[in-house]
Specification:
The chain has 390 residues and is α+β, with helices and mostly antiparallel strands. It folds into 3 domains: 137 residues, DNA methylase specificity domains (Adenine-n6-DNA-methyltransferase TaqI, Chain A, domain 2, Alpha-Beta Complex); 99 residues, Orthogonal Bundle (Helix Hairpins); 131 residues, Adenine-n6-DNA-methyltransferase TaqI, Chain A, domain 2, CATH 3.90.220. It is 40% helix and 18% strand. It has a 4-stranded antiparallel beta sheet. β12 and β13 form a beta hairpin. The protein is elongated. The chain starts with a helix and ends with a helix.
Length: 390
Amino acid sequence: MVEAANKLLNEWVESKIGDVGKISMCKRILKKQTSPTGDIPFYKIGTFGKEPNAFITNEIYQDYKEKYSFPKKGDILISASGTIGRRVIYDGRAAYFQDSNIVWVDNDEKEVLNEYLYMFYGNCDWNPSKGATISRLYNDDLRRIKIQYPKSIEEQKRIVAILDEAFADIEQARALTEQNLKNARELFESKKLELFLSLEATSRIIPLPLVCKEIFAGGDAPKKGLFSKEKTKEFDVPIYANAVKNNGLYGYTDHSRAKEPSITIAARGSGTGHIELRKESFLPIVRLIVLIPRTDIVVLEYLKHALQTLDILKSGSAIPQLTVPMIKEYSVPVPSLSVQKSIIVELEELDVSIHQILNIYEEKVSLLDELKKSLLHLAFTGELTAKSAA
């Protein structure tokens, strides 16, 4: 009897997701059937796992829920477009889900537990045969994905329990590491702010229009044929716009407007307030704000640090849009050039130290991710419970 039970525990099955249960989705909801407020949350692919921004009436919800396929409490909802394979356990609360973009396996749990499926999806290769990254997971793709699981439901429960406990420890370690990352970043900013607050008491406070030769905003982007996305012999002058990614590089053209080393401030979009130091000539566009300093009274790198301490530009506090008149209203402490240079050296040394700490913590986060992947791999090859039983 014991031998037979052990044999069942050790017996694994390889199947396809399509054999576990029917691939299901909700009935299509038309845009005109939704509203920004209402009775029942309607989750689209962009709000899947987040806060909803669309709703349907209770009448539509009840009608569609009764007539068409709808998830049971505990079913695992999967994103089938955008970031493929994001998953949410349906908690049974009244909600509706975007058809074809959010799907689930209608599983009776006779062979495979939903909790086991949830863990399996976290280790799943959603595109095992095509090689390239896919933008949509079609039902046939999902049906064909192979799944390995112990025949024993009790063994599945044991695997889930082991992974739950391990992942809880990993997430606790990740949370601590990420808090340390945040603390390290905040330490640098607080040290810088403390330094500039002390300068305000000992230095001249000068309005930015007097610190700079020019403060101006970029104009429209060059028209087609007058620029290139890649650098060429004809178009070799960088174009910068309001963006954080790739330092705001938009492309290349054949003329510049900012011809001296300068500071740029993103004036629009999600990166508003982001500051970059530019030493080459360039063309600013889309209202990107440019400050060209007077080098007889301020060092370029010092001005960048000073601007970053302004309330209007500090990380997380920038307003949605900036204008040149707004920037011109501000002043910065301006000590002697020699003091500015020593401050630059001090901040650079501090920055190096902080980045060393950040690198250590980022490596720890990466190792935690690898540990999680390793545990999932062991779980779905049968090695995890074999090791724990040994």
